[in-house]
Amino acid sequence: MKRFLATVCFLWLAVAPSLARAAEIRVAVAANFVDCLAELAPLFAQRSGHRVTPIVGSTGRLFAQIRQGAPFDVFLAADARRPRMLVDAELALRPRVYARGRLVFWSADGGLGRWSGWQDQARRDQARVDQPQTDQPQTDQIRTDQLQTHLLQALRNPNLRHVAIANPDLAPYGRAADQTLESLGLDSRLGGRRVQGSSVGQVWQFAATGHAMGAFVAYAQVRAEPVERYLIVPDHLYQPIDQMAVLVAGSREPEAALSFLEFLAGDEAAAIIADCGYRIPESGP
Questions:
Q1: How far apart are CA 264 and CA 40, in angstroms?
Q2: Domains detected in the chain
């Protein structure tokens, strides 16, 4: 009996530290990154034993909730401005850009092909832009110009009755869409055709349910769904979408949260993030 009790005590002492280290971390995540986080979270749990609980919303709304004391551990924003504001206010620390987003324009009803007849050419140009040949910068510029022409054709088409855009005050991808329209000289021409959502997640739903014929969303969203007709918006039409992660200063699980941020900065996570459709930034905040 004594030997049995000794064995039980030994096993408990061996297991108890790992149980003590296991934690649940609440990750406030921008809507564009939620599908990618769903791929990262199980791997992180496997590596660390910690569980990730996502709280999804627009970057602006999550930022406001953190300022009001929301019990988050990590903030995965879709921009760098708001995380830096939290750091300056001593409400967050350990800032790091974990991904650079890309903006796309798409239609769920297949209308891009019917509108102007450029579908086949756009697909060929799209494939070249998805896998650019960096040793031919002049050719790449021609392809980018062609893609911009396709985008203009779609946006100017009178059959495009509604265009969904995320609120630029809350969602960085909405701000990028506004910058794109301004660069194209179309910011004042959409008029009543503009449909606004609180986040790119809601904008996606507008287009997917037919409430908008076209939408500006994240490239990662079209990668996560069986979407064929989309156009990557050329980078020069909007400011870079650098997505920053921070540790929330009031975290209830700071060690687990730091472990997640370290995991996010590693090669294993970077490969998944790239496969989700993001560019991987250089090291550093």
A1: 8
A2: 2-101+241-275 (3.40.190.10), 103-232 (3.40.190.10)
Q: Which two tokens stand for residue 9?
A: 């005590």
Between 1 and 219, whose confidence is greater?
219
User: For residue range 61-85, what is the model confidence (pLDDT) as tens digits?
Assistant: 999 999 999 999 999 999 999 999 9
The residues facing 103 across adjacent strands are 218
The answer to whether 242 touches 221, Cβ cutoff 8 Å, is: no
CA 198/CA 108 separation, integer angstroms: 19
Strands (E), the chain: 24-30, 51-57, 74-76, 92-101, 103-106, 163-166, 194-197, 214-218, 230-232, 241-248
Q: Average pLDDT, stretch 122-144? A: 51
Q: Is the pTM of this model over 0.90?
A: no
Strand duo 163-166 + 92-101: pairing? unpaired
Lowest-pLDDT choice from 25-39, 116-130, 257-271: 116-130
Cβ atoms of residues 104 and 92 within 8 Å:
no
